[in-house]
Amino acid sequence: NLYLVLFQLQYKYQINIDGTVAAYRLPYLLAGSGVVLKQESHYYEHFYHQMEPMVHYIPFKQDLSDLIKKLEWAKNHDAEAQRISKNAQQLALDHLLPKEVFCYHVVLFQEYAKRLTKPPKIVQGMEHVPQPKNKPLCSCPSTTEKVERDEL
User: Fold this and answer.
1) What is the pLDDT of residues 63-106, one digit of tens each?
2) Residue 127: which residues within 8 A CB-CB, separation 6 or more?
3) Spatial contact of 18 and 116, defined as CB atoms under 8 Å apart
């Protein structure tokens, strides 16, 4: 619920914990004014390779065993925590606005199309959606950089 996420953004410390997948609210938290404490996780989203621990967020162990210690660190190092928060806000502005997310999906589907082994099958009820002509193709170098993980 977006309202709940916006309500929570008023807090100085934002804790991001995964569920059965990566927590979808992380981009909202990064864009907020609080510092994000992010759980270490094997889940990831397309932008995680652009984030650095202690630069864009404060990491804590997956089992939460050091979460209180990390919160205390943030409280005792307010200037550093605010710097991390500002870095996270800038990352969100540079890479997580709708245009950048759209560009990521354009690149994703282009790469997916290259991997198809046979043409898609058109079945009854499908509708052809013509593509606009004379419009520039999406170019987004930040989303086409080589990353360590294969996200396709």
Assistant:
1) 999 999 999 999 999 999 999 999 999 999 999 988 888 888 88
2) none
3) no
Helix pair 67-76, 78-95: axis angle to 10 deg? 100
Q: What's residue 147's pLDDT?
A: 44
Continuous H helices in 1-152: 2-8, 26-31, 67-76, 78-95, 98-115, 141-144
For residue 133, pLDDT beyond 70 = yes
Domain ranges of the chain: 2-95, 98-122+129-144
Give the DSSP per-residue string, 9-38: TTSSEEEE--SSS--TTHHHHHHSSSEEEE
